[in-house]
Amino acid sequence: MKMQIKTKPWKNLAMIALVAVLALLTGCSSTQLGQLVEAGMLATGQDPESAAQARQAASSLSGALVPVDEETERSLGSGVAVQAYSTIGKRHPNEALQRYVNLVGRTVAANSDRPDLPYTFAVLENSTPNAFAGPGGYIFITTGSLGVMKSEAELAGVLAHEVAHVSRKHILRTYRRASMVGALQQSAAAMDANITQYTSLVDAASDTLFDKGLDQRFEYEADLVGTEIAAVTGYDPRGLLVFLSKLNKISSAGGGWFKTHPPMTQRINRLNQFLTRELGGEKGIQQGERFQRTISAHLR
């Protein structure tokens, strides 16, 4: 009679994690990894059901470790852009305004962790103050946000916040947590061919960005990282803080930034502490006159 070796569940998980890392380093696919784990557990006397469950867990873990390629990320971002135009508002028709926002956005993006990404910024016609960052560097800001601002430093701070979401891959990390890893691993071409799968991925990202919002920890991280990016670029690092403080005073505000972001007072307090602790009295350019001149000519 063959003796069955009993292994504690946590030991199985530890083994799976170790093998997953090794598989990633050696180029083993998630399917191959699952098969290896299942064979190993059967060889040590584990029952077939446990071995099958371990195979599935190993495949999922391996998939979570595989990075999403830029082509896939950009493909998803283009789909989110289409959704933004139909859900949030049309692209503002003034090309001079669009060029100005793109110039500021790409200037701060050049000082991010992903400076070579082809960022695209767009102003959307919507009176509610808001801004979003889709996968692959597609970033949107509403006319409502521009209407609240008084300086280019504020614009740079908000755009740098969104750039931070992209550079830290917050939406992709949200995909992984939502168990959508398998679909993400496919190439952009494959997703385009499978319209149902592609649409579901775009819908999931759009729902998160436009309705549910990202994790609070991602928003707080983007506040701090974005403030650093704006400061390194040469802008007054208080730009984002000034903008958020203005929004906090709009007592009738509903939806928009208030719907998809953490409590404004908490963000303001954290930013104040960060500015005092890390940047002290550091100052940068405001460019209030240039901003007002541009906005007055092309928006108001």
Question: Can you give a write-up of this model?
Answer:
The protein has two domains: 9-65, no CATH class; 70-298, no CATH class. 67% of the residues lie in helices and 4% in strands. The chain is built from 16 helices and three strands. It has a three-stranded mixed β-sheet with strand order 1-3-2, with helices on both faces. Strand 2 and strand 3 (138-142) form a beta hairpin.
Q: How would the global form be characterised? A: globular
In angstroms, what is the radius of gyration? 23 Å
Element order: H for helix, E for strand = HHHHHEEEHHHHHHHHHHH
How is the biggest beta sheet arranged? 3 strands, mixed
Tell me the span between the first and last alpha carbons. 85 Å
* Low-confidence regions: 1-11, 13-30, 60-66
The order of strands across the largest sheet is: 1-3-2
Q: Write down the overall mean pLDDT.
A: 77
Number of domains: 2
Count of individual helical segments: 16
Helix/strand class? mainly alpha
Strand tally is 3
- Helical proportion? 55-70%
Strand fraction band?
Answer: under 5%
Summarize the structure.
This protein is mainly alpha-helical and 300 residues long. The chain contains 16 helices and three strands.
